[in-house]
Amino acid sequence: MTEILEILPLSKSVFAPYGDVIEADPSKMRLINNGTTERYHGVAEPIVVGAPERLIFNIFRGQPRQFPYAVEMMERHPYGSQSFVPLSGRPFLVGVSDDVDGKPGKPKIFLAAAHQGVNYFPNTWHHPLMALGGVSDFLVVDRDNTAANLEEFFFEMPYRISEPSL
């Protein structure tokens, strides 16, 4: 029987084992440019492991997921972090799993608000981009040469996600 996964709100504390939540954190705000700009400093730190030690900016254009949605696989990037910041003003879903003997465990699903992004730590099992509500663009920062930085795992029995309440 397929297990239905609960969708949880995204927060820094619950997401901390998997990466950073990228958002305007008032505790990290400083005024710059003669007081005309608020800078939220150091909200995430991209990580690169090994050569090529080069980070690149990408735009991913994600198609919206249809519900109920089957979570059939997870992926991870052992040699670098990967960040997703929404550019289209829409929320999106984030799926992560703990590592269990080199494989992803039961996924945890989070609803990221339109003002939140995520930075997955290297080697963190996560689901590919899950856009909601329409075609959505995301600024993605990750390690160059991603083909050598990808591991995928397919579940024997997929999990299911019901349509989130927005």
Number of separate helices? 1
Elements, N to C (H/E): EEHEEEEEEEEEEEEEEE
Span of the ends, CA to CA: 27 Å
Helix content: under 10%
The description of the largest β-sheet is: 5 strands, mixed
Sheet/helix structural class: mainly beta
**What percent of residues are in strands?**
over 45%
Number of strands: 17
List unreliable stretches of 5+ residues: none
What number is the mean pLDDT? 95
Which key features would you list for this structure?
single chain, 166 residues, 5-stranded antiparallel beta sheet, globular
Secondary-structure topology with pairs:
Layout (H helix, E strand, L loop, with lengths): L3 E2 L1 E3 L2 H4 L3 E4 L6 E4 L4 E4 L14 E8 L6 E8 L5 E5 L5 E6 L1 E2 L2 E2 L3 E5 L4 E4 L4 E2 L3 E2 L4 E8 L7 E11 L5
Parallel strand pairs: 1-17, 2-12
Antiparallel strand pairs: 3-13, 4-5, 6-16, 7-17, 8-13, 8-16, 9-12, 9-14, 9-15, 10-11
How would you describe the overall organization of this protein?
With 166 residues, the protein is mostly beta strands. It has 1 helix and 17 strands. The chain has one helix spanning 12-15; strands at 4-5, 7-9, 19-22, 29-32, 37-40, 55-62, 69-76, 82-86, 92-97, 99-100, 103-104, 108-112, 117-120, 125-126, 130-131, 136-143, 151-161. The strands form 5 sheets. Strands 2, 9, 12, 14 and 15 form a 5-stranded mixed beta sheet that branches. It has a 5-stranded antiparallel beta sheet with strand order 3-13-8-16-6, with no helix packed on it. Strand 10 and strand 11 (103-104) form a beta hairpin. The chain is globular. The two termini are 27 Å apart.
